[in-house]
From TrEMBL:
SUPFAM superfamilies: NosL/MerB-like, Periplasmic binding protein-like II. This is ABC transporter substrate-binding protein. It comes from Streptomyces lasalocidi (Streptomyces lasaliensis). InterPro entries: Solute-binding_3/MltF_N, SsuA/THI5. Keywords: Signal. Residues 45-266 form the Solute-binding protein family 3/N-terminal domain.
Amino acid sequence: MHRTAVATATATLLLALSACGGSAAAGDGGTITVTVGYQSKTINTVTAGTLLRSLGYFEKQLNALGDGHDYKVVWQDYATGAPITAQMTAGKIDIGSMGDFPLLINAARGKQLGRPTHLVSVTGYNLRGGLNTIVTAPDSKLTSLKDLKGKKVSTSVGSAADGTLVRALKRANIDADTGIEKLNQQPAVGASALSAGSADALSQFVAWPGLLAYQGKAKALYDGAELDLPTFHGVTARQDFAKKRPSVLEAFLKAQAQATDYLNAHPVAAAEKVAKATRLPAEVVYLYNGAHGISTFDPALKPQLVSALKEDVSILKAAKLTGDVDVDAFVDDQYVKKALGATYAQKLSAAPPAAASEVWPKGADRTQAFASPTALLSYLSAHRDGVRAAYVPDATTGTLWFADKAVWVADGEHLLPFVAPSTAQAYADGHSGARVVTYSEALEAAS
């Protein structure tokens, strides 16, 4: 997935991986090949990968250049950001997309190996950090971060999910190196370990927490949005490629903006397209990429995201994955500014859509929004067999979650959803008369 960075990556490994890559942009004669590295199942990079590819917008933009060249786009699909970085620094991939922590490693490796790269746009982001979640097994007795002390926790070292784990444990006064037994595993391996009982908890990035919860294989323990620190995904390009083919990079960013507009205008159709390409449940894709999903899609390099990237450097340095990273030198917004023109300033200042409760009725090509979680529950109680999925925003963080997987609190006439049990209990403890209730009890109360 997008945020996994391999802790043992070395220059030797990078050179070895380069042998399996495609070709970068060819010379001026004949067909010019542009190689794009993406992660199909990292669904918050879809506007620069899975969705963009399915829509064909990049190829159309290249054909419209009218510069006398023929272009061929080679799409290379990877499970993580690390091999994309390896291929880029070997000159085999021109444009890639990955999460914020792997982007920093991309910057560091590029500089180290004399193949500098630049962050040129953003795909999806969450200003509070809701793209990462810590989950436990469905029958786990763990209810808070403090319960993780001495436990086995699976994560991917060098990923933003690991960063969330480290920061969250620190706030709970637990040392991430000595207070838990950290298992450095790929997301799929960690998911299997959680199911097998060889891991007590799993800290991962989109779409793993939502997928496991949807499948009934996990429940949320900690909502990354509690950190209130932005997390995002972005597009990185080789510096030499960008300088040699600026019009090609701008064509890519124009196509990305088109794919973003498509996703925002047709969120259900976009979720279905991504689901078909990735074999992920469309209901899970929509949780993150929907109209009020956990992720907001916007190519603009917002100052809040750049500032967050600078704060992430210390986490990677502490894990000995990078040294200092010059974030200001890595970020290059000239191409996306030119690609988006006058609309860029508007996107730069645009706020994410407000959180809302939604129902996806069976057989429908659009969702239905509700004024409150209580109103949504009232609808669900009357249409128990007619709903494909139902989503509610956490009452404190706004993170969207499946209604039947949320932790509910009854506070007078209000029914409030929470992603994690600790935040639900904290709310109940702080409000006289409020109490945690089951989903069935919440449905009954709303009927």
